[in-house]
Amino acid sequence: MYSKFFYNSQIRNFTIAFGSLFNSIYVQREDSEGNPISKEKVSITYSNKSKFFQRNENDREHKRKPSIVLPRIAFNIVGLSYAAERKSSTKRKVITGTGTDNKNYVYAPIPYDINFAMSIMTKTQTEAFQIIEQILPFFDPEYSLTIKAVNNSISYDIPISLIGLNFDDTFDGSFDESRTIVWDLDFILKGLIYGPERSSSIIKQTINPIHDLDTGDFIERLTIEPYIDGVPLSEISKDDDYEIQITVDDQNNDEWRARTNILSC
In sequence order, what are the residues at sequence separation of 6 or more whose Cβ sits closer than 8 angstroms to the Cβ of residue 183? Predict the structure, then answer.
């Protein structure tokens, strides 16, 4: 386990991204002749269905000053499960940033499926149909959105699938009583969980001694490093326009250098 505290806000970001998909849904009310009267934005809240349903059951006539207004959408996380079929090599590194002398990275993420439950509560079936029809066409069978991770240094697409849809009409009283229409939708978000960000030094110079395979005698030494005229090696970064300098020291202590921009970055 990693000994230092880290927190990348990934599950929180998944939740915000999921909820943002449904924050621009409207219902339209019409008069008896089918003419539009008003258009209302549907509120969305992170909460489970039972909390809102209990509040609505205790005030079915909506005589109290409402703390919830229908129609309304509520959603919450109901589970996480490891997705072994999406696992990649954990030794792979993903670069998150570089400086002059070091680079930051994270190891390959761990795949997790995050289950979301969503409930749509309305007072009429027409309102429920309007909301449902603004959601279903976009999941065929999944909807993808881009999310950022590890201090916004990594961007990737996450697919969200609609896997279940159920309907419940709680009307069971007289015709004078109010009713509540509830649609339950189940989603899976295929997320990636990154570990802690780490740092390591950038290798700027390699020294390669060459020896005779039979006698073991020293033949020459090759030093390979980036080169910019007048700039010390320690101040050269990966984004600079540099050449590759090869220095050869032979067994007679003679030295010569060759520079090329073939390997320039």
Answer: 119, 120, 128, 131, 132, 165, 166, 167, 168
Q: Same domain for 148 and 230?
A: no
Give the pLDDT confidence of 218-249 residue by residue, as tens digits.
888 888 988 998 898 888 887 788 888 888 88
| Overall number of domains in the chain | 2
Q: How far apart are CA 200 and CA 99, in angstroms?
A: 10
Is there a single domain that holds both residue 245 and residue 182?
no
> Would you say residue 260 has pLDDT above 60?
no
pTM for the full model? 0.73
Q: Looking at the structure, tell me whether residues 101 and 19 fall in a common domain.
A: yes
- Report the C-alpha gap between 68 and 59 in whole angstroms: 10
Q: Are residues 90 and 192 in the same domain?
A: yes
The model's pLDDT over 130-167, given as tens digits with 9 standing for 90+, comes to 999 999 999 988 999 999 999 888 999 999 999 999 98
Q: Which residue has the tokens 């007679």?
A: 252
Which residues, 6 or more positions from 93, have their beta carbon under 8 angstroms from its beta carbon? 105, 106, 107, 108
Structure tokens at 75: 């959603």
Residue 33, domain extent? 10-198
